[in-house]
DNA sequence: TTCCCAATAT
DNA sequence: CATATTGGGA
């Protein structure tokens, strides 16, 4: 007698949730190049299930989803025992690129304040290699950022806010992406974690051997960005320069030899946003080689 | 058990 | 400096 349960809320979920096309490409990034090379992982593109067809965008439309740029610091742990997958090993420092953060924010926005807990966020993001700790740590920072923003926006004729350099830096990242409004108190109405988890599980868990090579060698050692100043979000001084291409498909080249590589003594140009910059950003700064991978992420 | 927050370490 | 890690309360 009761054939239809609640197609309503579920339908809503389907629309609100990122489509498989958006989630799948995400699960490829957090692998270190060394690991990929060590395992001789082919640069197979996860071929986002073409079977899924969702066209009904009732106001919620996303462009094709770009590969996720999760950047990791070079592990530089020589040859893991071999059968140790990236799990017990010490993971390299996660670099939160705007795109990665975008997914983070997206997940939080969809989950709502109530459900936006590290574990859930992590699962929703579906980024292979992302750990709860990663998310938790960033979540903390993100919350502080939001708080700061709100308290700050209220202050009209206040005295010059002595923003710390650290604060400015964080804002740089966060300012790169829009802050969802509903974030401030909206969640799945009547839905508990458990409820939606059932539906999310299948797509998330289907990441069989989806270890795709990240890209070229990511000799990210340290990430110190001595950016000039802060001020206007949007003009975030990034200074991205094109090093070489290695996005999407893995370059047949085995580059990334530690110790040299594409060292390019180019000072950060006055570039800015990452909207059309989709390559590897490699720059040398004070002896520290930094390689940041960027996707051609146009995102929305 | 996980979350959350602050401090601390790298 | 950005994350990671830790510690203790909820």
From TrEMBL:
Sequence ranges assigned to domain HTH myb-type in this UniProt record: 96-147
Annotated InterPro entries: Homeodomain-like_sf (IPR009057), LUX/BOA-like (IPR044841), Myb_dom (IPR017930), Myb_dom_plants (IPR006447), SANT/Myb (IPR001005)
A Pfam family reported for this protein in Swiss-Prot or TrEMBL: Myb_DNA-binding
Cell compartments where the protein resides: Nucleus
Organism taxonomic ancestry: Eukaryota, Viridiplantae, Streptophyta, Embryophyta, Tracheophyta
Keywords associated with the record: DNA-binding, Nucleus, Transcription, Transcription regulation
One GO CC term, this protein: nucleus
Keyword Zinc belongs to the record: no
Gene Ontology molecular function, alphabetical: DNA binding; DNA-binding transcription factor activity
DNA-binding recorded as keyword: yes
Organism: Cymbidium ensifolium
Region (Disordered): 37-90
Name of the molecule in the record: Transcription factor PCL1-like isoform X4
Top-rank taxon: Eukaryota
């Amino acid at each position: 007698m009761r054939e239809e349960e609640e197609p309503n809320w579920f339908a809503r979920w389907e629309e609100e949730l990122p489509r498989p096309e958006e989630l799948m490409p995400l699960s490829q990034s957090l692998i270190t190049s060394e690991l990929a090379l060590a395992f001789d992982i082919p640069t197979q593109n996860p071929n986002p299930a073409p079977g899924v067809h969702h066209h009904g965008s009732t106001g919620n439309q996303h462009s094709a989803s770009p590969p996720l740029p999760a950047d990791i610091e070079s592990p530089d742990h020589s040859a893991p025992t071999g059968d140790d997958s990236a799990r017990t090993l010490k993971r390299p420092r996660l670099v939160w690129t705007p795109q990665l953060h975008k997914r983070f924010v997206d997940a939080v926005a969809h989950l709502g304040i109530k459900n936006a807990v590290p574990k859930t966020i992590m699962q929703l993001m579906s980024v292979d290699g992302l750990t709860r700790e990663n998310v938790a740590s960033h979540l903390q920072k993100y919350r502080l950022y939001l708080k700061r923003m709100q308290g700050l926006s209220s202050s009209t004729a206040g005295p010059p806010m002595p923003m710390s350099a650290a604060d400015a830096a964080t804002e740089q990242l966060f300012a790169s992406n829009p802050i969802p409004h509903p974030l401030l108190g909206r969640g799945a109405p009547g839905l508990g974690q458990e409820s939606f988890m059932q539906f999310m599980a299948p797509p998330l868990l289907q990441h069989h051997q989806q270890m795709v090579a990240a890209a070229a060698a990511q000799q990210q050692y340290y990430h110190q960005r001595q950016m000039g100043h802060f001020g206007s979000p949007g003009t975030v001084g990034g200074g991205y320069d094109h090093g070489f291409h290695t996005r999407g498909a893995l370059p047949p080249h085995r580059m990334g030899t530690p110790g040299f590589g594409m060292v390019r003594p180019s000072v950060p140009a006055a570039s800015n946003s990452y909207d059309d910059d989709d390559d590897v950003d490699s720059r040398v700064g004070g002896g520290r080689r930094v390689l940041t991978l960027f996707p051609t992420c146009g995102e929305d």
